[in-house]
Amino acid sequence: MPALLDYQNNQYAKQLQDEIRLHFQSGKAITKEWLSTAKRWLDGLGGIAGSITWGVIMLNFINTAFTYRDLTRDGDFSAKDIGKVTYGLGYSFNLLMAVFVEAPWAVIRDAKPLSIGGYSIGILDKSAAYWKARGNAVWGDAIRGFRGSMVAMGAFGIAATTLELFDVWDDFYAAKTSDEKHGLRIKGVAVFLMGLGSSAQLLAGVFPASAFTIIAMSSWFSVALMAVGFIYLLATMTLNYFKQDSVGWWLRKCCWSRTMDYRYDETAKGKNEEISALMEIQLSPQVHVKSTVRYEDRYLGKGDYMSVAVQNGAGVQVYFPHFLRGKSVYFNIVSSKRPWGVLPVEKIDTPIYEAFLNRGKFRKVEQFGMLTNKPTAKASEDFTYPLMPPENEDLIWESWVPLDKEATLLELQLWYPADLINSGEDDRSYLFQMELGTRGDTSIDGLAAMELAVKASSRTGSLTLEVAESTPI
Fold it and tell me: Looking at the structure, do residues 193 and 262 belong to the same domain, yes or no?
């Protein structure tokens, strides 16, 4: 099937290229002939089904699946998250119904009016039951299929656009910059226009003999929806471009910023906030996590065995700047999993913080990102007494934690001492959520706003990691 669809798409593209070349080689007056020629091209490409392929539909479903995965990583599948996934599915089913409507529409489009009782009656002038009663089952089935597909297509589209309009409205009032608000306005207009198009499709299904059917099944209607969809896509890409991490947001607010609207106040308090925010960025730790596995033999039958890798833990490295030498760092660490592989992420109750503390050692920064598949022994069992890195150098804390074989994420929360970083009234901390795997995962931004399971544990119940200054020789 994929090969057949690719062949069909290539044929559409080739046909369109040939038509364009022949048209301009014919020497016709472009201004006079453009409308009729463009309409013939669109009719030859099959209307809706020519512009909406199975590939686009599958991409929508895949995109919705990725959206669901990202939204449920924090374990909090909120009403806003449910809305995002729902309107993503709504758009996918809207496109799917657009394909199914083509078969009955082909019958309706080619049907010739009949003379009944001296009147010319078209196929849409009567109901499906009427044509069934007159023995024309093909027309009856076509009307029934057309109405059902159009109503479903319009309903899915209206539901999707309505939910997304609420989402855009909510994002608009939460936007930090005027650029984001402009992008959200454009996106909102595009969503509203798509909703109008879906309304026309719904009305065409409810009233098939009305002008809504002519509008909804017009080739130009499909072109207009494609143009609106393209604007929607550009607006979405622009909004993603405007998203900023902690560094980008600080640069927008600092005294060097080109925009005056977002700068810190030109007061002593504003200057302190600017310096404090910069310190939070500069002192942010980096985290590297890599799963360790053991190999188990699985019996396949008939005396055959297969060696399977089973996760038994993870090596963890935390990169600390040298400013933390001689300081205390407070931390919480938990693992989480995705039940059944599809449900929202949930915390695993098995504690791992003691292993993180007891099996750890300080190492030189050159070893950051270099983890083996061997679990490290407890520090109390290591009699090699490795030297600490020199006093004025950065260092890493390397440890190993045992994990459930179903664990998929590792979450780490770190607090610095108050004399180094002021955590504020909301007790800000560095948060990391790392994906477990044998290839390893590295994160350098612990200031991203995330709602994680590890945040349920307060600083009060956290453990303390003492960062020594140096090892005397």
Answer: no
Any idea which residue has 């119940």 for tokens? Answer: 461
Do 260 and 202 lie in one domain? The reply is no
Q: How many domains does the chain have?
A: 3
**Local structure of residue 208 (DSSP, 8 states):** T
Residues 250 and 325 in one domain: no
* Residue 123 neighbours by CB under 8 Å, 6+ apart: 107, 108, 111, 113, 131, 139, 142, 143
CA distance 451 to 69: 15
What does the radius of gyration of the chain's CA atoms come to, in whole angstroms?
31
Closest Cα partner for 138 from 123, 149, 152? Answer: 123
Q: What is 132-169 written as a DSSP string?
A: HHTT-HHHHHHHHHHHHHHHHHHHHHHHHHHHHHHHHH
120 exposure class (CB count in 10 Å sphere: 0-12, 13-18, 19+): exposed
**Phi and psi at residue 416, to the nearest 5°:** -95, 160
pLDDT in tens, 374-422: 887 776 666 555 667 777 888 999 999 999 988 999 999 998 888 888 7
Residues 409 and 360 in one domain: yes
Provide the percentage of residues in the chain whose pLDDT is more than 70. Answer: 84
The partner residues of 347 in beta bridges, in order of sequence, read 336
Q: Are 349 and 388 in contact (CB under 8 A)?
A: no
Q: Please give the distance of CA 17 from its chain centroid, rounded to a whole number.
A: 35
Residue identified by tokens 């927008």 is: 252
Domain that holds residue 233: 46-242
How far is Cα 364 from Cα 389, in angstroms, rounded to an integer? 6
Q: Show which of 230, 258, 278 is a domain's final residue.
A: 278
In a domain, 24, yes or no: no
Most confident listed range (62-76, 143-157, 258-272, 375-389): 143-157
| 310 and 221 co-located in one domain | no
pTM of the complete model: 0.74
